[in-house]
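Need tokens for this chain, all 155 residues.
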Amino acid sequence: MEDGHMHMKPPPAANATGTPPMNHMGMMMMHMTFYWGNKGEILFSGWPGTRSGMYALALIFVFLMAIIDEWLSCRRPVKPGSNHVAAGLVQTVVHGIRMGVAYMVMLALMSFNGGVFLAAVVGHALGFLAFRSRVFMGNETTSLEKTSDHPRMSL
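Here are the structure tokens for all 155 residues:
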């Protein structure tokens, strides 16, 4: 610390294997830029580890969480005419689950792994296509305003 200002150095780049380097205290440093590779940590300490199969499982997990987030965002869990208190509690629980899933996807993205990023984006895109786009709505007259908590996109 000189002249009253603290200067921080960015963490060193990952080594050739894609794993983050260790700092002087033996602790693993987190990536701060996108990297490609199947070695790293996503969501939990030591997971997926160094095995390619576990990395593929982690990508599938993030992909499915993104699809579930899209599905939860377009569903109304309460039928019209339901008890207002019970309906409010059900909506609150579903909203809490949706936010938990969305934050898990966000935390997975904070691994800065390119594969995780692509899995999340493709999961959200396919979830939107399946549950919220007009492709699978057929001749239904139900508008997105009635089935979603998101504003309708106009094209």
